[in-house]
Amino acid sequence: CNEITASFKTTDLGPRPMKVGGIDNVRDLGGYKTGETKTLQNKIFRGSEMNGSHGLILSDEGQVVMSDELGIKLDIDLRGDSEADYITKSPINSASYKRYPVSNYDNIFSNESTKNLYKEIFADLANENNYPVYFHCWGGADRTGTLAFIINALLGVEEKELIQDYEYTTFSSFGVRSRAPGAAGQRFNEFLQAFHRLAGNTPKEKAITYLKSIGVTDAQLNNINAIMHGTEVEIDVTSPSEYCSTFSKELTLTTNGGEVKEVFRKSYSDGLRAKVNCYGANSVPEGVAIMHKEG
Predict the structure, then answer these.
(1) Tell me, what's the pLDDT at 13?
(2) Cα angle 218-222-225, degrees, rounded to a multiple of 5
(3) Cα(40)–Cα(44) distance, integer angstroms
(4) Exposure pattern of 264-275 as b/e (b: 16+ CB <10 Å)?
(5) What is the pTM of this model?
(6) Strands (DSSP E) along the chain, which ranges?
(7) Strands 96-99 and 74-77: what pairing?
(8) Which among 170, 224, 222 has a CA at the least distance from the CA of 40?
(9) Which residues contact 36 (CB under 8 A, 6 or more apart)?
(10) For position 234, what pLDDT does the model report?
(11) How far is CA 50 from its chain centroid?
């Protein structure tokens, strides 16, 4: 019988666990309430590794899900080089590949290498062309759970849901997040304590404090929020070379007593477009000085 007698649809609220052949602990990062709205699904996914020595290998059926159904464009690998078998190409056919061997939990606040890598990761997340994104370590639990916490906090997810999202790994094959000394759950408690010490009254404010301290720009933070909430994305004028079809010049300026001094100029096109000046001010006084200079 080909007659359809009933239909159903799943909720668009998080967490949204997903079955992907050969790998584990995969779920959509979106769907959480953030005030009057909620984050979009089908934008960022988290989960386990797809190659390596732990027995988690993306199957042919999983390839169909990741490449054809989800259309993953960027694979962010949080593992070390040897742990990732030194691969330089994503197991996902549709995705480009970047590896950022980060640490986890409260180490993200003190480890300089990890802070620099987090800055690069959030620059990737600020680029709408990279979406949908899949990020992972080997189990999708500790390094992945730490990054997921910071992303969701930035997006405005409340702390109760941030903790629940971390704990949801318990329902994967990796089991309960133990709070025993030295166990992952205990490390998560230490991470929470360090996160609580950040300036800010809400998880969102604390995440912004951390991310700005490692060099993530306001425009990048705004872009990530816009992408995940379905609003208009800004152009990050701190990197005009990435938008050379729009901006023609990169001007580096210094101000002294309200006066603007140009110290660097670079054109990215010819003709009339090369006459367009693109300024980036780091403060209100700089912006005012630039406005006076341009008349």
Answers:
(1) 73
(2) 145
(3) 9
(4) eeeebeeeeeee
(5) 0.78
(6) 16-18, 26-28, 33-34, 37-38, 44-47, 74-77, 96-99, 133-136, 249-256, 259-267
(7) parallel
(8) 224
(9) none
(10) 74
(11) 19
Q: What is the pLDDT of residues 195-254, one digit of tens each?
A: 999 999 999 999 999 999 999 999 999 999 999 999 988 765 444 433 333 334 444 445
Are the beta carbons of 26 and 168 closer than 8 angstroms?
no
Query: Which residue would you say has higher pLDDT here, 239 or 89?
Result: 89
pLDDT at 275 > cutoff 70: no
CB atoms inside a 10 Å sphere around CB 35: 10
d(CA 89, CA 19): 23
For every residue of 138-207, DSSP letters joined together read: SSSSSHHHHHHHHHHHHHT--HHHHHHHHHGGGGSTT-----STTSHHHHHHHHHHHHHTSSSSSHHHHH
Quote the DSSP letter at residue 41.
S
First to last CA, the chain: 75
Mean pLDDT of the chain: 85
Is the bond leading into 132 cis (omega within 30 degrees of zero)?
yes
The amino acid at 62: G
- CA pair distance 284, 287, nearest whole angstrom: 5
Query: 279-294 burial string, b = 16+ CB within 10 Å, else e?
Result: bbbeeeebeebbeebe
Does residue 271 or residue 291 have the better pLDDT?
A: 291
- What are the pLDDT digits (tens) for 113-168? 999 999 999 999 999 999 999 999 999 999 999 999 999 999 999 999 999 999 99
Give the model's pLDDT for residue 230.
96
Q: What is the mean pLDDT of residues 160-180?
A: 81
Burial 226-256 (b: 16+ CB within 10 A, else e): ebbbeeeeeebbebbeeeeeebbbbbebebe
Separation between Cα atoms, residue 269 and residue 134, nearest integer Å: 35
Tokens 């800004």, residue located: 234
